[in-house]
Amino acid sequence: MQKRKIDVLCDALDDFGRGIVRIDNKAVFVEGLLPGERATVETRFEYGKLKECRLLAMKNESPDRIVPKCPYYPSCGGCQIMHLSYEKQLEFKKRKVEHLLRKFAKIDIQAEDTIGLDNPIQYRNKVQKPIRLVKGRIACGFYKTNSHDLVPVKECLAETPLGTKVTSAVMKLLGKYRYLPYDEDRQTGTIRHLLVKTSSAFDEALVTLVVTDERLAGRKAFAKELMTLVPEVQGVVLNVNKRKTNVILGEKDIPVYGKTYIKDRIFDKVFTISTQSFYQTNAYQIEKLYKTAIDLAGLWKSDVVLDAYCGTGTIGLSLCDRVKEVVGVEIVPEAVKDAKENAKRNGVENVTFLCKDCTEYIRQGKRKFDVVMMDPPRKGSTPLFLDALKKMAPRTIVYVSCDPVTLARDIALLKDSYELEKVVPVDMFPNTLHVETVVRLSQKQID
Fold first, then answer.
1. pLDDT tens, per residue, the chain with 447 residues
2. Are the beta carbons of 142 and 76 closer than 8 angstroms?
3. Can 402 be counted among the known catalytic residues?
4. What CA–CA distance (Å, rounded) separates 440 from 429?
5. What is the largest CA-CA distance in the chain?
6. Strand partners, 130
7. CA 91 to CA 13: how far, in whole Å?
8. d(Cα 190, Cα 142) in Å, to the nearest integer?
9. Which sign does the torsion angle of CA 287, 290, 296, 300 carry?
10. Catalytic residue among 10, 53, 156, 402
11. Helices 219-229 and 161-176, interaxial angle, to 10°?
12. Which burial class, exposed, middle or buried, applies to 20 when counting CB atoms under 10 A from its CB (0-12, 13-18, 19+)?
């Protein structure tokens, strides 16, 4: 093993928020370093290859560096760029999207400025926290980056105040009821995770305990006492996950007491949120995100719209007043059930939700759509779906993406038939590396 101490200058940030420096004419990445900063770093080589480059001492600080408000940063792995001013975070995310589109889609396009928040803290309406024993005490918090070492967190600045209030009450009751936290190594204990969902429009919360054993003694008394301590809690649910896995939720939900859902509002419509249902995590940005997508779609009153990967129907129901008809297609039965309930709750009659595979539905060729709105999961879409989409030939495609890498990959498969016209990053997760992106693709004219 060989170590060297070197003075370096940071030129830029990479897509993971690390500072880029040059050592021996090679790009090297340093955690915590910002552009324009000089520092002393230590490199560690093994078998002639660089294994690590860590920051030892700063020589000057960038004017864009700020003191993070969170006492757990950077130990907690939840946030990665809290030391960067929010204005520069938004700029970083814009450049990241542009860079990845150039790299993977071979398209050089200028993105719009990233749409940010007025206050980039206390925005998460959903928080999932592992419950573990730390130094003999029950604790919840977040894992350090790339590890399963728990950092106990009493108050997360990304979480809504109601979420923090609920977490505090749950932790007190876990001790009172002597519920044992899960031990990953020994495969013992009952309580794996705490999932708290809160509403921005209504003063409501839903609590889900992820457990290894559904026979949790005293669970109804626990739920009643929690709902007495925190009246905003509408219900308590057990989610059963017995597997040795990093996947948080199991497939089985057991209502314990109260309701199994809470409500929230997007524009003028009310939606239900349950344990398993997908709902945008930043309630304060949902309307900005959906308005951006709807505006980019250029909708006509005569349009028939396909809402692909529709989930619980939030996008389709948000735009249905502007078009003739919307068809939402989703493969998850529970999500389709929620979508139908949401349509009924809001008195919407021009939206149909189908529990089908999106690709197979399009390939059947039974319907022609003018506009396709697609909001796939993080892994993106598939070549089969994109090929079927091109054959169906809608006028416009609006793609809402939570991962610019898979977005760029999918656009590369569409660009022979569609022109990428607009790219709008939206910051749904301040202080992190994540960026949501909305793009408009228009059908190319055949000469």
1. 678 899 999 999 999 999 999 998 889 999 999 999 999 999 988 877 888 899 999 999 999 999 999 999 999 989 999 999 999 999 999 999 999 999 999 999 999 999 999 999 999 999 999 999 999 899 999 998 888 889 999 999 999 999 999 999 999 999 999 999 999 888 899 999 999 999 999 999 999 999 999 999 999 999 999 999 999 999 999 999 998 888 999 999 999 999 999 999 999 999 999 999 889 999 889 999 999 999 999 999 999 999 999 999 999 999 999 999 999 999 999 899 999 999 999 999 999 999 999 999 999 988 999 999 999 999 999 999 999 999 999 999 999 999 999 999 999 999 999 999 999 999 999 999 999 999 999 999 865
2. yes
3. yes
4. 22
5. 73
6. 193
7. 11
8. 18
9. negative
10. 402
11. 140
12. middle
Dig out the tokens for 7 from the structure: 């003075």
Structure tokens at 312: 């619980």
Q: Which two tokens stand for residue 415?
A: 């660009």
pLDDT of residue 373: 98
**Tokens 């960038």 label which residue?**
62
Range 172-175, long-range pairs (CB < 8 A, 24+ positions): 172/229, 173/222, 173/225, 173/226, 173/229, 174/131, 174/138, 175/138
Nearest to 129 by CA among 201, 197, 225, 196: 196
Residue type, 106: K
Strand order through the sheet with 26-30: 12-13, 19-23, 26-30
Within 13 Å of residue 189, how many CA atoms lie on the same side as its CB? 21
Specify the amino acid at residue 352.
Answer: T
